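Protocol step 4 of 5: obtain the predicted structure for the target chain.
Materials: sequence only (see below). No template structures provided, no constraints applied. The aim of this step is simply to have a reference model before the mutagenesis design in step 5. Sequence pasted as it appears in the construct record:
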Amino acid sequence: MMRRFLLGLTLAAGLPLAARALPPVPPAPPVTLTPDRPAAPVAASPDARLERGRYLAIAADCMACHTAAGGKPYAGGYAIDSPLGTIYATNITPSKKGGIGHYTEADFARALRAGVRADGSHLYPAMPYTSYAQLTDADVGDLYYYFMQAVRPVDEPARQTALPFPFNVRLSMLGWNTLFLDNKRFVPDPAKSAQINRGAYLAEGLAHCSACHTPRNALMAEIGSQTLAGAALGSWHAPNITSDKVSGIGAWTDAELTAYLKTGHVEGKGQAAGGMAEAIQNSLQFLRDDDVAAIVAWLRTVPPVRTAGQSKAAYSHGSAASEEVALRGMAGATEHHSLNSGAVLFSAYCASCHSASGAGSTGQSYPALFNNTATGGATPANLVSAILFGVERKIEGEEHEAFMPRFDQRSYVQPLTDEQVASIANYVLKQYGNPDVSVTPAYVAQARNGGEKPVLARAQPFMLPGGIAGILLLTALFVWLRRRRRHRAVAANRA
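Step 4 output (structure tokens):
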């Protein structure tokens, strides 16, 4: 998923797939590698069109944002914790009372690709219409057909979004779109293969990868020169996925990239959590093998971007190490406040799953903490967020669900304080990860509250008084100029 502007995007707990709307694994119809939909007979049957639309909805990860936890498929209400406030996803079922049942195909296309609803109001770019703008007319038509014909209508409207001023003025998005929305359809690059063009269409359009992996400017628009170079996503960090061999995925093999996109797990490299776990659980694992191969082929063509100061790949840090023997007997059986160091806290809360040496479990259901991008990166964001919010990722066909409990205030295991989380993180970084990175309790507190706020969000409390002051200043200036003009006119008449 987002996810994230989203962040929500992206960001957020994994949502279960609703089997009623999306069968678990899509069948693989005959495919031609084109950026548009797979080739089909001129007189395609309704069932074939529904299947194409269903597959496109999976590739676009519509379920993740438009289905609340425990809610009905596509009925909306999912809370996206954006830096500017909570945005609630809309009901996109074909209900004429609560959803989009009154939308024409043209209305649907405008909302999907231009961010404008049927009533003329503007959507926020937490809905990645800036990416969906690339979708072809044929694919938009198939998506519309699927939602109108195959999704069960839900009459209850989703909760309404109510951002603080001035972000609640949706008309402001007209100016934002003028500046940042490239409302052009995907055009295949004739110099690239059909496979790479297909991968570009999937990754840049339907899967909207840049929405999470590209950093944003002060106005929350993607920075084109830093495409896929990694970005903060609330408390999480979406990593650099350019072709750079140190900072990005340039040194990953095709098999490793494929495995990651399909399962979220590559031993000795990384594990998907947060928004990426959502995207894999709800979308990427269900893509056809040829489409995953196309995305991998396209990723190889993304211009490399080196993260400043990085000289060693995140997954290359660390090795097995244990201090467990030295900890034995340090505290008496009845001693209070004995959990007083990172090593002791790690032994108490982490070693039972990740092993005392940090090597993880047999089979890596619980991954090693060394050779792991979460512990070896230039930022501790994903390590701290995994401790606070846990990891949940379910892959069809795998016997065990990837799971790590959360240790924030909502933990059913043991809530940890900011100081305790920082101590554990620093111990893990020193023992198994990037020793040049450290974590403070203040950093943990910030992550607990959604991560560092962007400039626009930090400026929000001053916008209303600043706007009022500006209006008063302009009014005073107008009155002064008017009086001055009168005085000059009187003086001219006397002369």
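Step 4 remarks: Confidence is low (pLDDT under 50) at residues 1-43. The chain has 19 helices and eight strands.
Proceed to step 5.
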